[in-house]
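User: I'm putting together notes for a lab meeting next week and I want to include a structural view of one of the chains we've been expressing. I don't have a solved structure, so I'd like a prediction I can at least talk through. The sequence is below, exactly as it appears in our construct file.
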Amino acid sequence: MALFNYAAKEITLKIVYYGPGLSGKTTNLQQLHSALDSQTTGKLISLATETDRTLFFDFLPVEIGKIKDFSVRFQLYTVPGQIKYNLTRKAVLKGADAVVFVADSQGEMREANMESIANMKENLLSNNINPDSIVLILQYNKRDLPNILPVDELNKILNSSGYIYLEAEAINGKGVKETFQTVTKLLIRDLSVKHQFEIQPPAQPEETFTAVPDEIMGQPPSYERTDAAEENTVSSFPQDVLEVTALKEPLQSSPSQQEVVSVGKNIEEPSLPKKVEAPACSSEQIDKLSENLKENAAMLSGIKSAINELMDELKKSREEQKEILNILREVKINEAIERIKEKQKGWLAK
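Assistant: Thanks for the context. Below is the predicted structure for the 350-residue chain, given as structure tokens.
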């Protein structure tokens, strides 16, 4: 479920990487974390168990543009691959906006893939998420290994619903960014359709090009206009192109001396900024915020309960070990007593 932070003007979208154990979920997040811009990427947090771990980091892409003045932040999670950690899987999957199912292409992982995708759909339904309506794509990983199943066979056993699928070699970095770009584009498109939003690309507005007179430029400018379809896609101009475009107008224009003097006066005597009143939040927005806070609290409590269950299991196993040791000690003591009694009987007989 998309979280709207009206104070920070951010929309937080949650993407969960799901799949069987050792299928490449962790490798996907590690490759992404190292490849993305460190200035807009949070720390890679790991919650480790005995045999598996859950990873998390958030990412605020600047080049994706804004949705109604809201920046978009992605939170990426992985789930433990082992079925015995299903409670943690279910807790991590709560509130997900999109899922990337990472399948292991090896032939011997056929049953594990089928079991994991069935478990994913079951956990989605338990979190009141429809597997057919959520943004969900498949990644067929480990395509560099020799003993892999054909893509047609993988689609036959895993992709009966016709999800978008990609091939990948996560260990080599192939297909990792393509998978992330695909799921984010589908997620933004789905969000804009559900809430009737329009994406505002971060490119310079067209008025900055047309505002420069032809006489100053020396020749008529020839800029290509982008059509509406391209403006709505999740893309942007390279940063170096934007910087050069932004510098064109002050370099080409030649202001008069009077203009320079007026600018100097404006710099020496700046006007105080106008106070901007904070927009009033409606009762519906406040209700949504409270619901989001409740869901986050519920997810945290679920993770805590899972950790507590693991700790209880460890305590039980330790107690059982102590009981076994006590039993062994009692057995040894009884054996020693019996031996002493037998020796005493032998002495008395003599």
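A couple of points you could mention at the meeting. Residues 15 and 98 are 5 Å apart (CA to CA). The beta strands are 3-5, 10-18, 45-48, 53-59, 66-67, 71-78, 98-104, 135-141, 164-167, 199-200.

User: Perfect, that's what I needed.
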